Amino acid sequence: MKISLSKPGAVCAAGVSCDDIWSAALAGDNTGLSLANDKLNDGSGYYHGKVADNKLPALSELPVTMRTRNNQLLLCALKQIEVPLRTVIGQVGAHRVAVVLGTSTSGIASGEEALAHHEQHGELPDTFNYKMQEMVAPAECLAEVMGIEGPTYGISTACSSSARAFMSARSLLASGFADAVVVGGVDSLCKLTLNGFKALESMAAERCNPFSINRSGITIGEAAGVFIATRKEDGLQDDLVCLTGAQSTSDAHHMSAPHPEGRGAVAAMRGALYEAGIETADLSYINLHGTATPLNDKMEAHAVTELGLQDIPASSTKALTGHTLGAAGATEAVMCWLALERQNGLPKHVWDGQQDPDIKPLNLYQGEPLAKTVNHCLSNSFAFGGNNVSLVFSKGEL
Prior knowledge:
Pathway: Lipid metabolism; fatty acid biosynthesis. By secondary structure, the protein is an alpha/beta fold. It has 11 helices and 14 strands. 32% of the residues lie in helices and 19% in strands.
């Protein structure tokens, strides 16, 4: 079943609109990954992909019990699709529109602030509501703001959360539970994840450097990306880009390390390509998971090569946005959507150019002119616990 995807709303360290993000992607501009002003618990500094505070809507635009930075990022992305979304709601009715959003941190940052306030004052601030931290909080916030009455829920499968949300949105449409789904993801920076990844020795001291022999870990970022998904045959919106294939797997190899041979990753990619009905030669671009950790990059390069996809132009856009965790799948879906719609290039792979001889070489895109039309894009999202999701996005007329 082909699912039509609207022009997305998006915000991340690379920009606060699709135009800004795409300009940064084509140029390979990674200056959005900046050195933080504060320190981690161990006193060390770190780079992060933070969105400038003055680029976001005012918190006062949100309901009082939903005023978190996570929802603030979400509102920024939502405003970019608000007009077409209200049109779709008017066409099918609020009860026939669903919301499925992926996240891994939700409003935890607000919980951290509330605990700090409690330590100082002996009570939680009046502005804090424990529901801010629930994984369903972003989805409920979006439904509240837009008056949506259909199924509303969140998905939290670590770094594959918002990629998995596309599969859930497709199921809601295929089953007839909804005629339109707002789908995507959002995650904001918080000390819990920053210090957690530091404790795992997974954070890079500088900007991340995917697939390089000098790679040393991730740069964490924050982002939101949202789409309106409808059944292609219903004709409710322009079908410039469609979701044509999707597959999830779980190899359950280790809590935090990927299977060294990428068995689950291979199965996810193979399944997504099969669903989309395309051969290796049909694929135009791969948005790699590409975290810049030693084990993940080695595994993914092996998995891509196992499927004979090593010559397909590819890049990891986490070098531009940071690893946006639960929002990564949606953020990278935005990159694929823009590549298919704009037809003027692909996201540039930003690294130091130093190939690791211990991993399989890939065709990491450096901005060269495209030899053919971008017709199909594969996007990978791999998470802790061996949770893997691969999605195929295609031009709507195909």
